[in-house]
Amino acid sequence: MASDRDILPHWAKPTHYTLSLYDLEFGGNFKYQGTVAININIDNSEGWSELVLNAHQLKIHTAEIKTNQGISEAKDISYDEKRQRVTLNFGTTIQYKGEAVLTVKFEGTINNIMAGFYRSKYKPKGEVPASVAKDDEFHYMFSTQFESCDARRAFPCFDEPNLKATFDVDLELPEDQTALSNMPEKEVKPSKKPGFKTVYFDRTPIMSTYLLAWAIGDFEYVEAFTKRKYNGKNLPVRVYTTRGLKEQGRFALDNCHKIVDYFSEQFQIDYPLPKVDLLAVHEFSHGAMENWGLITYRTTAVLFDEKTSADSYRNRVAYVVAHELAHQWFGNLVTMDWWSELWLNEGFATWVGWFAIDHLYPEWNVWGQFVTESVQTAFQFDGLRLSHPIEVPVYDGLEVDQIFDHISYLKGSSVIRMLSAHLGEKVFLQGVADYLKAHKYSNATTNDLWSALSKASGKDVNSFMDNWIRKIGFPVVTVAEEPGQISIRQQRFLLSGDVKPEEDQTVWWIPLGLRTGSSVSAASIHKVQALTQKQDTIADVDESFYQLNKDLTGFYRTNYPPQRLAKLGESRHGLSVQDKIGIIGDAYATSVAGHGATPGLLALVENFQDESDYLVWSQILKDIGSVKSIFSGAEDISEGLKKFHLKLISPAVEKIGWEFKQGEGFLTGQLRAALILSAGLVGHKATVDEALRRFDLYISGEDKSAIHPSLRKAIFSIAVKERGESGFEAVQNEYLTTSSVDGREICLQSLGRVQTPELAQRFLSFIFSDKVAMQDKHSGTIVLATNSKVRIEVWKFIRDRWDTDVHPTLSGNLVVLERFLRFGLNKFSDAKIADEIKEFFKNKDNRGYDKGLDVIDDTIRSLDKYRRRDEGVVREWLKAKGY
What we know:
By secondary structure, the protein is of the alpha+beta class. It contains 25 helices and 31 strands. Among the domains are: about 220 residues, Immunoglobulin-like, CATH 2.60.40; about 90 residues, Neutral Protease, domain 2, CATH 1.10.390.10; about 150 residues, Orthogonal Bundle (Neutral Protease, domain 2). About 40% of the residues lie in helices and about 20% in strands. The strands form 8 sheets. Strands 5-4-8-2-1-11-14-13 form an 8-stranded mixed β-sheet, with no helix packed on it. A 5-stranded mixed β-sheet has the order 16-17-18-20-19, with helices on one face.
């Protein structure tokens, strides 16, 4: 048995499960009864007396094992709560090798913590059958979330990714409700219980327990069919919702069938199941989950209303649909061998999800979006001393929830993009198709993928990718200029800027993407393609223009000399959107780390007043927002940066106007929403006045069309900031009454703009009331944390109400608790607060969110160093420039 991981005894392996759930309580304690018969291969010639499998928060009534020697009943059933296991002791040594059937009768609870088999509350639209579970205010739907290790909360099983098996599922439910599972319905039989039926589903392919799924509720659907034929038929594709919402599934549906066909072609393997169902779930801890054939989503990731949704959600729905469909091959058909290789699933699905959206919506410039959202966010986390390698050792499956993070998803996808750009997209996808064909219906490792890509490309992929996957961090490439040449040096990038020699041993293979020429328009790619040592000198570089890391395809920061940065700013009109984002992001990050300084960043973005691209503005506003946040403690600097921000943004916001024009591009609408929000919050008078005028018309009910759906966040945020208590109460009331699918999320984000400690505390108390679903409790907190006026209140609330509110409410689902803490506390730039946080959590059991606490600590201390180092030069620059 591998000693680097805590796994079940390897001599008992499941091959098939027959799972029946019945006597579900549609109210009260929400208990249910179940029977599971597991076909097991036993390979133990020494004799055995007990079997160990996973079970968590289940009560096992009886267990028996049937071999060709007869039936043995478990005499003793003992639970190991911490390791989430149950041991069935048969009271005697059984000398048996071969096929056996273990039958377990058990009881579970349909919980309300978004893990295992759980219930989610909602307010229905239209008539609801009397059988649907409800309490005073809400109705409930039932569904599952098993990844990573929560199938064991629903039924006793061998809950490890490489213990694949087939599944037969049947569910007992009221006759007027719908049951769904991975496979189509096989048959429906009347139940012994009057008014109930039992639905039997077809057998699944061989798969991991975490991909099993089922759901029960008052569902309806919209349907389409793939254009391609699969086994001679066009596949049915459906989006299921609770009653009254199905029409909002049309946009996802339209993307879904096209993407299934596109991936079937690209991966050279037909989609392997007879149907694709997408289900909108009212409470959901993640964005979505790729259960094979029954993909589950939070409502804002799959529903979109053409009339009432903000346009940004169009992009989100399209991408999340594509990401989860990618998993049907990459993850479901071929599964990572163990959780340490989670990145194989998530990094690839992230990259190929964007790849599909680029195919469907070329006008969205998704690679520009990828660079500003995914790559920059990955840099931020991987620049911490306490980051982890993409492929991270996981001893125990229960640790894995904390690596569903920006490293596995975003750094993983960023290095895949880098590799794909280097090998060429066609060759890369051929290698992926070969990998999928070689390992379908089984498990694979990172090395298996590298082997397939090496074969397809004729290059030794392992040699240049290994450090990217197995080593922590990423490099910064520092450039020095000499006549006609540049010298470049790589070292590990740390946000704190204090990399020690022993932390800087890795030599990364770095694709240079170096362009040079007499001008930006005359520039071409340099013949030297990669940096493969610590430093090098490159000749034939034209001083008139050169630039490293074209389109930011390489996962590294570039640190240019200050005068070169200024020149690149002057050449900006000849650069791609990705180039501009990369240069701005690098200038900010190298300032924080001390390789550069903040005045260089400010001087660079000053050039961008005439910028018209949303994605570039998105990067500028993010980085200037961070600088303002970090220096918010010094009043004179704060005032100067506010003037700088106002001058920078005024021409753009005045030019873009308030009206959405017919046929206008998606990105133009996004730019309008971003500029109005930013200008309004920084006090641009005309923007504030117009926002408040529209707000009053909307809230009074006089003119509900006064606020375009895509401007709700901007206008509500400005009103909360400017109007204080009356604005807060009006937006809070909008939260409680909105029927728009994205309305609640938007209101929570807007309420985070409060300006007084009293309103911040009121908002936090509201977040922890039962009016805000657990999945959304971090939404408002993220904005409070970025709000320098009141962010200290988040820390006070966590500290003062940890035992009464925060821990009791969130600790049932550690993913949610970790996310709440990390987003709520990582924006401070004062080491004293880091000390307080460390002290507070010192003697607590932090298992499940300890890595999040490390991220918070490292981030705050890095920002504190930066603030103290650059405060003087920022003050000086602002003064010299008249801000």
